[in-house]
Amino acid sequence: MSSPESSEYDGTEAAPHGKARSTEWPLWEIFIRGQHGLSHRHVGSLHAADAEMAIKNARDVYTRRNEGVSIWAVQASAIAASSPEEKGALYEPANDKVYRHPTFFDIPDEVGAM
Amino acid sequence: MYAQMIKSTGKGIKSLDEMDPEERAFQERIDAGGKIEPKDWMPEGYRKNLIRQIGQHAHSEIVGQLPEGNWITRAPTLERKAILLAKVQDEAGHGLYLYCAAETLGVTRDQMTRDLLSGKMKYSSIFNYPTLTWADMGAVGWLVDGAAIMNQVPLQRTSYGPYARAMVRICKEESFHQRQGFDIMMKMANGTPAQRKMAQDALNRFWFPALMMFGPSDKDSVHSAQSMAWKIKMNTNDELRQKFVDETVPQAEYLGLTIPDETLKFNEETGHYDFAEPDWEEFFQVLKGNGPCNTERLAARNKAWDEGRWVREGLLAHAEKKRSRQMAAE
Questions:
Q1: Fewer CB atoms inside 10 Å of the end CB: C or N, chain B?
Q2: Which chain B residues touch A46 with a CB distance below 8 Å?
């Protein structure tokens, strides 16, 4: 029984999670838009050599049961993400601004729907 | 289950007081039903256990295609063939969802593949049994996928976000698998005497291996406590096994088939069926690599990997060529 060894080929960048070996296809994040006018939604990821193949694979992996009508494939290394440590700085300021929600204001019943 | 005998790296469970602040916050978040996401802090043991468990689960989905793939070209009708093909394709999809979930923990898919092919990482013992007749396609869908569902439904609530999300997708699809298996069993059980005999024979051979899928008895399952505290295991092996038996016995009765266990009996007091334990010695032998099909399964995976190498490399070279041409043009 042979074991898989990497070849000499050295043509791709490292994949974002962990260190990729030189023969590994890059990782793509897949977004699908469903039938009913909702936005594209992240459904998962997959490996593919290029964008065209990423979309073909996404079709097979994520839309076998009519889950969508449009696919976006984004190379995972191209995504910028906020980090959990920034949570406080980013989201806490919203906590004391409850007046941004319509329910903050009491409107008398006589006024009717508003 | 699809992940049996996961060895825990922790040294037993710490109480909240023994933990440092980071770990305590982590555990409290899990206790409160929160999710852990890829970039969040996590104990090294949690990360390692999850890689083993999700990896083993993924490998099981991939190797699990082999016993069923065996019957695609021999399915009795075109419709059965199309259904089986769709089912096996789903298994490949399940493997991919899970590999991607594991990759968010900092291991590459190639690394996991290498560890499967070298025998370092395991897959479920059930796939080391042969599928000898078409009735086995029924028994595998009904019993093996049925047992898998028992474990996977609660795992939709597991603490690691990417794993839980993969499980939600898998569970949606798994129900089709079990039903198509039961449908085959119904057809066979209501067929000619020869077909009936095949259905009974398939049940006879798959019953105990299906019970083994839940892993060793709780009293021998030394690594469960930490995994349960981390909510990467939601029920004990024996709980799930009992649930499976309770659900499956009436289904076998409906089919008019006999479960190959003379001690099987409904216990009025507990409200559950009493049943015989599988042969654990056989289970450990299969895990060690001495099951009927271990060699064949690993050889098939290695062959696929080796023979697909020129395709993988060719496609990368092509992508690279296209990219450099595009850059030259700009």
A1: C
A2: 96, 100
